[in-house]
Amino acid sequence: MAKLYFSYSTMNAGKSTLLLQASYNYRERGMRTVLFIAAFDDRGGHGRIASRIGLDSEAHTFRPDDNLYEVIESLKAEGEIACAFVDEAQFLTEDQVWQLARVADRLGIPVMTYGLRTDFQGKLFPGSQALLALADELREVRTICHCGRKATMVVRTDDNGQVIRAGAQIEVGGNEKYVSYCRRHWDDVMNPEASK
Length: 196
Known about the structure:
It is a single chain. The protein is of the alpha/beta class. It has 5 helices and 11 strands. Strand 6, helix 3 and strand 7 (about 110-115) form a beta-alpha-beta unit. The longest helix is centred in the first third of the chain and has 14 residues, at about 15-30. The model has no long low-confidence stretch (mean pLDDT about 90).
């Protein structure tokens, strides 16, 4: 039985690397996979999933108004699909998460999604919230804070390294813009008056 998976973490934990490795494992055995990434995330190039360690692959892009069930169903008409992969799954809409659940339930194609759980203010992304509610299996991908504890939160910084406490939920970036922390150190940075 096909399942919907959600592998989540904070920034720089290796989610894209894991996705690309899993897809490679299928392809190495002659099985077809389809990969997706948010259309506006062009850090690796338009329609490319790229990891910090240099792995990359072509991917289909998705926008908020795309019906991913219909897209995958039409791709399946071109040949069997062993697995569908979605990077930056926090950018999915709730409807798209339901569409991916239907891909697993009705088309029998496993769907592996990878993304952030929370934003820089500690709030759930809509796509992540829906995945936490609907995914058959949840997997935490771990990275560490500078103190050595598990990092579960992320802080956004400006060009001068100053912490940003307000702003749009979505702002694409990498190491130059985001720092991962454990909850305690995130709280110290985001709410310095509370740590006194």
